[in-house]
Specification:
The protein is an alpha+beta fold. It has one domain. The protein is about 30% helix and about 25% strand. The protein has 4 helices and 3 strands. It has a 3-stranded antiparallel β-sheet with strand order 1-2-3. A hairpin with a 7-residue loop joins strand 1 (about 45) and strand 2 (about 55-60). The protein starts with a helix and ends with a strand.
Length: about 80
């Protein structure tokens, strides 16, 4: 799983496949939601296919002190090329 986080951290292949100038921004923002930061942020997103930033797998932890504490939700994220 570490290699997936590395791709999300803005490798050249990841930026090139996201299309347009938005790919650079997307790669930069994905650095904040890597698996290594999941325990702190409670949010992560990694590409299904390494280097392709238009299809991501997301995971969100339930917030503390809420009925959702301890829950973990998975989601598929599709980002249009433009």
């Amino acid at each position: 799983m570490a290699s997936r986080g590395k791709a999300a951290a803005g490798g050249k292949a990841a930026v090139a496949s996201a299309g347009g100038g938005g790919g650079v921004r997307l790669a930069r923002e994905l650095r904040d939601v890597t698996p290594a930061q999941f325990d702190v942020s409670g949010v992560q997103a990694v590409p299904f296919v390494e280097g392709v930033l238009t299809n991501l797998k997301g995971t969100i932890k339930g917030p503390m002190d809420s009925p959702y504490t301890g829950g973990i939700w998975s989601l598929d994220i599709s980002i249009p090329p433009e």
